[in-house]
Amino acid sequence: MKYALYLGCTIPLRVPNYELATRRVMDKLGVELVDIEDAGCCGIYHEQINELTHLAMAGSIIAKAEDIGLDIMVMCNGCNESLIKANKRLKEDADLRRKVNEILSKIDLEFKGNINIKHYIRVLYEDYGVDKIRKKVVNSLDNLKIAAHYGCHIFKPTDIIQFEDFEDPESLDVLIEATGAKSIDYLDKKLCCGGYVLGYKKEVAYEISGYKLQNIKDAGADLIVTICPFCNIMYEANQRAIESQLNKQFKIPVLHYPQLLGIAMGFSYKDMAMELNRVRIDPKLFE
Amino acid sequence: MSIRDEVLSEIDGETIVFCQSCGICTGGCPSARFSKYNPRRIIHKTNLNMDPGDDIWLCATCYTCQERCPRGIKITDFMNLLRRIYIKEKGMPDFIDTLIENLKNAGYTTQLGEIENKRRERMNLPKINTADYIKRILELTEG
């Protein structure tokens, strides 16, 4: 299995621990990753600013991967939605494709429409297979209770992304349980983290994340697992600020899914760069 | 063109005429739960050709409303359309400025400086270079 790896902006610059864990885990699983060189932003924010800019930015990433000749693997829900949407629109609409290719030709790129985009959760769940992952587990995390947070753009809008039922998803729960841990239920599990509102009204975004953190705490979870850098930042980097706004204490560790899988596969705390997680994680949790 | 006509002329907006005001959109909305944001009211206002106001920026683009709407209204796409119209008429809101600056400077939404690459070097991760072609795309598309 081989994919072109697209990192986006937030992962390489703000959560490199996520990147390191993912590269190491994929390597050990035998999933080969080829970096897309000098790939900038996926253009998601321009869906609300200028559609042509969005399509050209997303189209440029897809065109770079087409030149490599591989499907793209993403690690961010935002990149997932932005690239899949642009890929579908540009494949289906010849006029739009011509318009975007006119722009891309000025930076020596061309969108051809011959590859697909997959979030790594989908790569693991659909392509690699959960049974095979179970066989790689050497340190079964039997005593852990985990709160999965799917986020939104891993499957929504469903008509564009065509993955699983957003009202009743299971991919992440199943992948968490493959490590031996228990994926628990909690109130409003599928609710958004609020991250997209952060720029406009920080207080509202914090209220949403804080509400979810409280529900997760009430359900008795040992830690949260995320699959998107933005959701992760909301729960992790912003957890203290949320605590201070809501006058509450959560102190709930947050892991990127590959960090959890990596620990179960025998990697060390340091291998998974967990010293960079802002909310302290007690290494004893994994013993 | 009036706001109503402009919205109805676009694929992302034409479905709002089907609204039956049931409020399922607002009931399941994360932002509506913690702010005065009310997508049902924004659809209603637009149908009545009234200014939907600044609350359009409170949409978290989670798509739950769009998925659940019994009338098949593309509510999230419509909010993004309202935002594009807002920018066209009133200019870029301040909170987006930094994002655009970062994109122009290095091609990423977040700042790319020495600190970031030094940390990557310590972690044996490949260096992140500036993606200057993004600036060119912004110029070519007036984004």
List descriptors.
heterodimer; A: 287 residues; alpha/beta; Glutathione S-transferase Yfyf (Class Pi), Chain A, domain 2; Rossmann fold; 2 domains; 4-stranded parallel β-sheet; B: 143 residues; mainly alpha; Fumarate Reductase Iron-sulfur Protein, Chain B, domain 2; elongated
Summarize the structure.
The complex is a heterodimer of chains A (287) and B (143). By secondary structure, chain A is α/β, with parallel strands linked by helices.
Descriptive notes:
The complex is a heterodimer of chains A (287) and B (143). Chain A is of the alpha/beta class. Chain A folds into two domains: 2-120, Glutathione S-transferase Yfyf (Class Pi), Chain A, domain 2; 138-286, 3-Layer(aba) Sandwich (Rossmann fold), CATH 3.40.50. Chain A has helices spanning 10-14, 16-29, 51-68, 77-92, 94-105, 120-128, 130-135, 158-161, 171-177, 202-218, 229-235, 239-246, 257-264, and strands at residues 2-6, 32-35, 72-74, 117-119, 145-149, 182-184, 223-226, 254-256. The longest helix of chain A is centred in the first third of the chain and has 18 residues, at 51-68. The radius of gyration of chain A is 19 Å and the shape is globular. The mean pLDDT of chain A is 97. Chain B has 143 residues and is mostly helical. Chain B has two domains: 3-90, Alpha-helical ferredoxin (Fumarate Reductase Iron-sulfur Protein, Chain B, domain 2, Orthogonal Bundle), CATH 1.10.1060; 94-141, no CATH class. Chain B has nine helices and no strands. Chain B has helices spanning 3-8, 24-27, 30-34, 39-47, 64-68, 75-90, 94-106, 114-122, 133-141. Chain B is elongated and about 55 Å long. The model of chain B has no long low-confidence stretch (mean pLDDT 96). The chains are: A alpha/beta (287), B mainly alpha (143).
